[in-house]
Specification:
Blueprint: H1 4-10, E1 20-26, H2 29-38, E2 46-52, E3 70-77, H3 89-102, E4 109-111, E5 115-118, E6 121-133, E7 136-147, H4 164-168, H5 174-195, H6 202-208, E8 215-219, E9 225-232, E10 238-242, E11 246-250, E12 256-259
Parallel strand pairs: 1-2
Antiparallel strand pairs: 2-3, 3-7, 4-5, 5-6, 6-7, 8-9, 8-12, 9-10, 10-11
Length: 264
């Protein structure tokens, strides 16, 4: 079973995912979480669905998954910090998902900023959206899609995407996966809000960074360049050692990073 009751029972936190809303189908759990926010849902509310008809990823990409295969959920946050810090929450969630997968004894890493990868293929997508009111954060919604028991991918994705099941041959309890992510996120979020940066999470994040000390290509539409990724700084920027300009900090957003020889 995978429903409101079973997900709730698997979450052992103080506030992250303490209230679970579940439907069989919605257009996008992020859109649904925004509706819940407008209805006054509290900080830590989780919206989960079995199927999304219009799931979305970064840079406007679609996110689709067969019914029964994935964890698709969006977490509603009501932070009191300034809007400028909210984008780093994407990295906080990426770290949390990677740690959750690692706790299942699966070797995992993060392709900066927030792609969780196993065997150099993506298993998770994260989309963070923010609503403002009078210059303050009204809500932050973090959508998470994790390929858990997916058995195959379309040909165009097969070299870039994988699932926990494809990697290990085992079927996983999606309730447990959701619960593990909420537990890791609660711990990491509470560290983050103490400083409003990644300084207390840097060691954990950089340990899991797939790009670290690897040649990367920064796909900046204005000025693409190559270098060696050194790690992230407390602002969540990727530090890239270049041959001619020294170390350049790269901000997440419209910029994509690729390994020089592969997706990671």
């Amino acid at each position: 079973m995978y429903d409101q009751n079973t997900i709730s029972k698997a979450i052992h936190t103080k506030w992250a995912g303490k209230t679970v809303h579940f439907v069989k189908e919605t257009d996008s759990t992020n859109n649904w979480a925004k509706d819940l926010s407008r209805q006054g849902a509290p900080h830590g509310t989780l919206a989960a669905a079995e199927f999304q008809s219009a799931g979305k990823g970064r840079l406007g990409r679609a996110w689709k998954a067969p019914e029964g295969s994935s964890v698709m959920m969006s977490l509603l946050l009501r932070p009191s910090f300034e809007p400028a810090y909210a984008s780093m929450l994407t990295l906080v969630m990426g770290l949390s998902v990677a740690q959750a997968v690692e706790s299942l004894d699966i070797q995992t890493s993060i392709k900066w900023p927030n792609d969780v990868v196993v065997s150099r293929k993506k298993i998770c997508g994260i989309l963070t959206e923010m609503g403002l009111e009078n210059g303050k954060i009204r809500e932050v919604i973090i959508g998470v899609g994790i390929n858990v028991n997916t058995e195959s991918f379309p040909e165009e994705l097969a070299d870039k995407a994988t699932s926990l099941r494809l990697e290990t041959g085992k079927k996983y309890d999606r309730n447990q996966v959701a619960g593990l992510v909420m537990g890791k996120f609660e711990t990491n979020y509470e560290r983050f809000v103490r400083t409003c940066d990644l300084s207390l999470l840097l060691e954990d994040y950089n340990r899991l960074l797939a790009n670290r000390e690897q040649p990367v290509r920064i796909l900046d539409k204005n000025q693409p360049f190559e270098g060696i990724a050194l790690g992230v700084n407390e602002k969540g920027e990727l530090l890239v050692q270049t041959e001619t300009e020294g170390v350049r900090p790269v901000r997440a957003g419209e910029v994509s990073v690729r390994g020089l020889y592969s997706y990671v």
